[in-house]
Amino acid sequence: MVAVVLGAALAAFYLLTAVYEQKWVNIAQAVSAGSRPLDNFLFVQTTDADHDAFNRIISWVALAEIAVTFLAAAAARRWRRRSSELWYLLAVWAGICAFLMLPISNPLWNVLPKLRFMQFPWRWMLCLGIPFTMLTTLGARRWWTRSALYFAMLGVIAFGWQHFQPPWWDNKADLREIEDNMATGAGYEGVDEYTPVGADPSAVDKDARRVTVDGPAQAAIRVLEWSAEHKRFTAEVSAADQLALHLFNYPAWRVEVNGRQVKAGSRQGTGQMLIPVEAGENRVQIIFIRTWDRSVGGWISLLSLLLAVVLLLRTPGTSSTP
User: Fold this and answer.
1) Residues 259, 263, 268, CA angle at the centre, nearest 5°?
2) DSSP string, 226-256
3) pLDDT tier at 236 (50, 70, 90 boundaries)?
């Protein structure tokens, strides 16, 4: 239990932020059709042929890892007599990882807190990698057995290298387009679960200017800076109005107009940021600030890291006799 708490504290820089900021976005879209655990168990069949093609490949890789892990556990049964507790721990660990990749485990994915947001059950291969590595090392004692396993693993990597990309929905041209859009500042299409609550990204005009007037006023707008976390521009408007930005309105944006902090609004439907301005010249600065959850989470992780180092240094060394 102590190890679990310490591990969570070390990851607080991410966990606390994820827990707190999920209310800002349409997080439920992360488990929509196609991304649900139910659609991604090993060898599951859906109505999406491309999805199923990719799932079959990853399923065979997972099955190979599971098979080798349990064969290695059987081969290490002699070693089990010397340290049965660790052997059983690794075996149970591997069994749980394998079970959670199978459709029979679906009730657990619906009941256990937030587990469904892992989306793809085959991601448990990452956790299975630890008992896989340890049991394989313990079970394969002869050099020729280990060599055969090494070459087999290299074969799996080569197989995945050649076969994973074709069934993926983004091809080389799509990836090149994303790269070009990032270079030109046009950006790329994101995913629904990270858009602000109530926003529909499909309703946003992708070709809209970075800053426009939302009402009838006339304006001369000059963009001075438009980076990922810092934006500056001036707007000379004929009457009090609102400026609509080509930018989603998240709570972490701090908006200042003529040196005074103002509260930005959101356009109904699109979630675009709306900034109130007065008649005349307006100097607008928008900064993506570090919210309290990120600062607190970072400090918790740092202090936990220091505690872990202290505990490691204070732990007396152990020795074993053959």
Assistant:
1) 140
2) E-SSEEEEEEEESSSEEEEEEEE--TTEEEE
3) very high
The closest alpha carbon to 186, from 220, 209, 214, 213, belongs to 209
Strand partners, 255: 262, 286
Query: How many CA atoms does the CB half-sphere of 280 hold within 13 Å?
Result: 3
Helix (H, G, I), strand (E, B), or coil: what is residue 266? strand
Query: Rounded to an integer, what distance in angstroms lies between the CA atom of residue 63 and that of residue 13?
Result: 34
**Residue 283 confidence (pLDDT):** 96
pLDDT tier for residue 77 given thresholds of 50, 70 and 90: confident
Q: Where are the domains of the chain?
A: 27-173, 201-288
Q: How far apart are CA 62 and CA 114, in angstroms?
A: 23
Mean pLDDT of 270-286: 95
d(CA 90, CA 96): 10
Which residues 6+ apart lie within 8 Å of 188 measured at CB?
Answer: 178, 181, 182
How far apart (Å, rounded) are the C-alpha atoms in residues 91 and 110? Answer: 25
